[in-house]
Amino acid sequence: MRIGQGYDVHPLKAGRSLVLGGVHIDHPRGLDGHSDADVLTHAVIDALLGATGLGNIGEHFPVTDPHYKDIASLELLAATAAEVQDAGHRVVNIDCTIVAEEPRLQPHLEEMRNNLADRLGIEHTMVSVKATSPEGLGALGRKEGIEAHAIVLIDAI
Fold first, then answer.
1. CA 24, 51, 144, 36 torsion-angle sign
2. Structural domains of the chain, count
3. What is the extent of the structural domain holding 108?
């Protein structure tokens, strides 16, 4: 058994679509980044790569590669899942937390969970996605960005 931890944060920017866990959420600003900037999916990818000792998201999907410009992060997750399996591991479970002052994410958490589980080829009950507010503290509390944390458990197949 191996454990991996992932973290990502991106600033909010006008003129971008807000995507979290592959869900497009109605909001006047989206996350700024090279891909769709889906911090939840990026945190899961980094946790998977860390657990397997395969590096990090920046090594696998560099911002210098135009192929990844505006790509859906769920595509990157599917590629990572295949690499994890090829390395002889299977995902046991994932626990994630999104930190955002706004928008309210509760109505979207189930769809995020389903998207992640589907791309990883695991039971939906093996994925947990939660959201919390920074309660007005710091840059996230000032609505400048959104962050996500993920922990994964994997084992050898």
1. negative
2. 1
3. 2-156
